[in-house]
User: Which sequence fits this backbone?
């Protein structure tokens, strides 16, 4: 490979079968998001379900 290889040539040879940086970033963001805290709406709905208990205390 020389200095002037095209991006398409590199994609077909050197980087063939590798995950792209864009795909990797999207995958990691999805993994972080799925393991994070519950969505605010779900958390608020859960608290609303326990409001009777909060009023007792």
Assistant:
């Amino acid at each position: 490979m020389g200095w002037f290889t095209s991006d398409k040539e590199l994609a077909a040879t050197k980087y063939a079968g590798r995950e792209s940086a864009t795909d990797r970033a999207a995958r990691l963001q999805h993994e972080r998001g799925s393991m994070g805290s519950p969505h605010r709406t779900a958390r608020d709905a859960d608290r609303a379900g326990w409001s009777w208990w909060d009023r007792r205390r």
The helical segments are 7-12, 21-34, 40-49, 51-56.
